[in-house]
Amino acid sequence: MSEEFLSHCRHIAGEPFVLTTAADMAPYLDDWRGRFTGKALAVLRPAGTGQVAQLVKACAHWRIPVVPQGGRTGLVLGSVPDQSGSAVVLSLSRMNQVRSIDAVNRTMTVDAGCILQQVQDAAALHDCLYPLSLASEGSCTVGGNLSTNAGGTAVLRYGNARELCLGLEVVTPQGDIWNGLRALRKDNTGYDLRDLFIGAEGTLGVITAAVLKLHPLPKASSTALVALGTVRDALDLLTLMQDRCGACLTGFELMSAVCLELVATHFPDLPRPFARLHGQYVLLELSSCESEQQASGMLERAVAVALERCIARDAVVATSAAQSRGLWDLREHISMAQAKAGKNIKHDIALPISRIARFIATTDAHLREAFPGCVLVTFGHLGDGNLHYNVAPPEGVPHDEFLDNEPAINRIVHDQVDAFGGSISAEHGIGALKRDELSRYKSPVELDMMRAIKAALDPLGIMNPGKVL
């Protein structure tokens, strides 16, 4: 059966684009962190939506599971196959064209395989901004961003990937093509099918193209790093900045002292803006459609008020693009510094902003009681309530040995997230890694509704099986 199926796939996509040898498939089977390697019957690399539809139709006929794949930057095993070897990986990397840009309507229609940075650059050529911004923007793809409802550093002002998408083109599990590429901001003509597929992680169909929402390109931006004593001070600073700067506040990133010490240790060439260590730091960014003077003046005045009110202990305001880049490098190198330091137990969580300080204090205490000496590496997008709450081993404890505590640590963290009204996944999705955790924290009613949608759209269960549900 598999040979007949693969021969049919070669007829559709072409011999070079149906990969079956171990060496050819290897780059598509590892997860981003290098902790898991799946197996596949084949890797299929279609050239367009028509080929995707034909390939999925063939998979439905032969009952072959399909694992859609974009840039492979996910962190929850959502885009890699399991180890059964029965599934095909459907890589959309060849589908990477910007189909059209409408600068007046401020929309862009792109293939799902477009690299995020490619989309940002194409928008800028038309004096527009596509504001989704991620550390992996040089390799992640639009299809992957939408399938996980990616967030990033500009959610505070512009929203998640869902808010930046107006329409979709999707290949259904039956191999049909739904053309929902409508560039409309108002369309009340029934169920919003677009929102079913955004965040579904490829379990309901394959996103092949999208209409993205563009914004005016800011004339200038201004950046500051503010030193604070506590997370509570950071929340007070957020309120102050929102009151004084409104929609100009684009980024508000929290970093603990542990984070900056890690960066300083493993990337000593990066700036060290302050002479002494503080408990917490916030990286602020304002953008203006008027002028650099407006952005920098507004930021300087707001920071001065924070210092006068003793909310902030110290601050550095960038006076050049290079200084701004240096401050952002501190934030963007945290994950790389963690990787250099060794393995740790990661959590991508969301909480009501007002409860974040109490959550951190309470959860830190529980973890330190249960695992004395553990190192808590806390950073994230405080402006939208998204924390990366990571737990590293105590000094001298082997990292692999400490990872054996992952289930117990997850239980402490996720139970506290639930108690504070939060979510165990903010922007990375569920994939296979958090599937069992999801069933613990979602209500039976909610899970039943999700299963009903899955059964209705994918009755054969071939779309990314084992992920989410």
What do you see in this structure?
- The chain is 36% helix and 20% strand.
- It is globular and about 70 Å long.
- It starts with a helix and ends in a 12-residue tail after the last helix.
- It contains 17 helices and 18 strands.
- Helix 8 (231-245) crosses helix 10 (292-308) and helix 13 packs antiparallel against helix 15.
- It has 4 domains: 2-91, Uridine Diphospho-n-acetylenolpyruvylglucosamine Reductase, domain 2; 98-216, Uridine Diphospho-n-acetylenolpyruvylglucosamine Reductase, domain 3 (2-Layer Sandwich); 220-330, Alpha-Beta Plaits (2-Layer Sandwich); 342-441, Alpha-Beta Plaits (2-Layer Sandwich), CATH 3.30.70.
- Strands 15-12-14-13-17-18-16 form a 7-stranded antiparallel β-sheet, sandwiched between helices.
- With 469 residues, the protein is an alpha+beta fold.
- The longest helix is centred in the middle third of the chain and has 17 residues, at 292-308.
- The model has no long low-confidence stretch (mean pLDDT 95).
